[in-house]
Design a protein that fits this description.
The protein is built from 13 helices and 12 strands. By secondary structure, the protein is an alpha/beta fold.
């Protein structure tokens, strides 16, 4: 499968989860699409792009089990979360629940809302992995019940839930937590950045989150800058404006209350003259995935490789795999392995070590992975993709052994 990607010779990419990678057939579609635009920009923008965009929305909607007009495209998951949180009309006593493992970019959005709306408070569910899905669900329910009990009856509670945590790269029981939100009258906002293309049977019609957003450029193979934002019709009145307010914003002051409609889909259709190829590339990406075997075959291979590669890497480093449960319920296509480095509580030192490992691996060994500190230990997160083999994990193991040895000498000599 390596032949389908444009990696430079000798580069080993075990970090698909951060940025994704574009297959050559999808890259070729983007080139052809750009040529089509430039051949007649007026015809394209005035007569053609809207139909193409609708077709792309329909294709991705079928994959995630949603209605076409409940799905729009935005540039990133962070942009999607911003769209949601900045449109909510906050009131006194409102609470945003997030997790200690919430992606920092998303956590900062929640923090900004609390900073700019003095009536909003933040509440944190603490998670340290490894931890079972059963315990996560129990802890989340207890936290939600506790928050609700401490709130005024008129206060609203919102929960930002990862479907797959970034650091460490672990799957959460987000559907069960969404169900708890429904039972407790809490608004569920699902950060599914790593879901589409990695998680099977998403089925949003059945799961019924209040909001859900996922990058198409990570695991689905679309061009970077392609993310699907799902807002069920019951909640589209909340999204009064796209993040980029533009031509199709309908002011409620300019229409009769009975006729007012936020125009959710239309507002996200034209943010201005942008490059639409990232959004439209989802069709080419899904065509490619079907050609090489389809969703099930792709994810079966990547999941199996993550488990086997993780064991090989743990053996090489003399550590352990984070998810050692018999069912591997925390593991989709990313695996986390402990690094042979001493613990440190200094955030400054953690940042220096992370930067050092990143530089050593990329510049000396031409291999990429993600390193982080969690639960008192250092870890490496590896993404298993169709271009990877077990030998890639073995190579990374040797590179990390060398890099960690140098890091111990450099940062822990005393």
């Amino acid at each position: 499968m390596l032949k389908y990607f444009s990696f430079e010779p000798g580069y080993i990419n075990l970090n698909n989860g951060s940025f994704g990678s574009l297959p050559k057939p999808v890259a070729e579609f983007c080139v052809q699409h750009a040529a089509r635009v430039e051949a007649n920009p007026d015809r394209y923008h005035r007569l053609e792009f809207a139909e193409l965009l609708t077709a792309a929305r329909a294709r991705v909607a079928r994959l995630i089990g949603a209605d076409t007009d409940e799905c729009v495209f935005v540039p990133s998951t962070t942009a999607g979360i911003n769209t949601i949180l900045r449109n909510i009309e906050w009131s006194s006593g409102d609470v945003i629940i997030r997790f200690s493992t919430t992606y920092q970019g998303v956590e900062r959005v929640a923090r900004y809302i609390a900073d700019t709306h003095s009536e909003v408070t933040l509440s944190t569910v603490e998670l340290t992995f490894p931890i079972s899905h059963q315990e996560i669900v129990k802890r989340f329910r207890e936290h939600v019940v506790g928050v609700k009990a401490s709130c005024h009856s008129s206060s609203r509670v919102y929960a930002i839930i990862d479907s797959v945590v970034s650091h460490p790269g672990v799957a959460l029981p987000w559907k069960q937590m969404t169900q708890i939100c429904r039972e407790e009258g809490v608004c569920s906002i699902i950060d599914a950045a790593h879901s589409i293309g990695q998680e099977m049977n998403i089925d949003l019609a059945s799961a019924q989150p209040d909001f859900w957003v996922s990058n198409c450029h990570k695991w689905l193979f679309a061009k970077r800058g392609s993310t699907v934002l799902y807002v069920p019709k019951r909640n589209q009145h909340i999204i009064k404006s796209a993040l980029v307010t533009s031509w199709d914003y309908p002011s409620p002051k300019e229409s009769a209350p009975a006729a007012y409609d936020t125009g959710f889909v239309l507002q996200h259709e034209w943010p201005g003259a942008i490059d639409f190829s990232p959004y439209l590339s989802v069709c080419a990406a899904m065509d490619f995935r079907e050609k090489i075997g389809g969703e099930q075959a792709i994810n079966d291979y990547c999941h199996k490789l993550a488990l086997e590669g993780g064991r090989k890497l743990a053996s090489a480093l003399g550590g352990c795999v984070l998810d050692e449960s018999p069912s591997a319920e925390l593991t989709l296509n990313m695996v986390n392995v402990q690094l042979p480095l001493p613990p440190t509580t200094s955030k400054e030192l953690q940042g220096k070590i992370d930067s050092f490992l990143e530089y050593e691996l990329l510049h000396k060994h031409n291999v990429s992975s993600v390193h982080f500190y969690h639960g008192g230990s250092w870890w490496v997160r590896c993404s298993a993709q169709i271009w990877n083999e077990v030998s890639d994990f073995e190579y990374l193991g040797k590179a990390l052994s060398n890099a960690c040895q140098e890091a111990r000498s450099k940062f822990f000599a005393d």
